[in-house]
Write a structure and sequence with these properties.
Strand order of the largest sheet: 1-3-4-5-6-7
Structural class: alpha/beta
Largest sheet: 6 strands, mixed
Number of helices: 3
Number of strands: 8
Bound molecules: zinc ion
Strand content: 35-45%
Number of domains: 2
Distance between the termini: 86 Å
């Protein structure tokens, strides 16, 4: 039998000794703070924790949306995320933890817990952060800002001359000049 707990607590921490050997299933809506300029997003989390002595195997699914700054137009946009993860956790303070690491499955990511407590909120935050791209886009074909006047080209074309030379093509323009002589 898998224990089942439904929680709406904002901060979910699980006492490791309380995790039954046969596993623990948790479902929760956790507020996850990803960055400073937006409030917490609610992450719907389904998590299964199995315990083998002090070693934990955590399988989870997270559905949430995070506010990110588009790397081209710099506007806030909502990025939906639907992710699953499988991670192993060991006590951070355990002596000889390094030896145990060698025996762990290389396909699993390894995390650590302290004081006999698994901080699920923190764990979910880590997984969400890992899933956010380094250079997020509001949409795949975001035209970004005009390099000359800074206008957001999502709002329409700017008044800048179209024949401005693309800096990447500048060497080619020089070459053309040489051919003219
Ligand atoms: Zn954009
Ligand atoms: Zn412009």
């Amino acid at each position: 039998m898998i224990s089942y707990v439904n929680s709406r607590d904002s901060d979910m921490k699980i006492r490791v000794p309380d995790i039954p050997e046969e596993g623990l299933l948790q479902e929760a809506d956790l507020p996850v703070v990803i960055n400073d300029h937006t409030g917490p997003g609610i992450a719907h989390v389904l998590i299964k924790i199995f315990r083998f002595g002090k070693r934990l195997l955590v399988e989870g699914a997270v559905r949430t949306s995070v506010t990110v700054k588009c790397s081209r137009c710099l506007k806030d946009s909502l990025l939906p995320l639907d992710l699953t993860f499988r991670e192993e956790y060991l006590p951070a303070e355990e002596p000889g933890g390094g030896k145990e690491q060698e025996l762990t499955n290389k396909d699993l990511d390894l995390g650590f817990y302290t004081d006999d407590e698994l901080d699920v909120t923190e764990l979910v935050k880590e997984q969400v952060l890992l899933a956010v791209p380094m250079k997020p886009l509001c949409r795949d074909d975001c035209p970004g800002l005009c390099p000359f006047c800074g206008k957001d080209l999502n709002e329409g074309p700017c008044g800048c001359r179209k024949e401005e030379i693309d800096p990447r093509l500048a060497p080619l323009e020089k070459f053309k000049e040489l051919l003219k002589d």
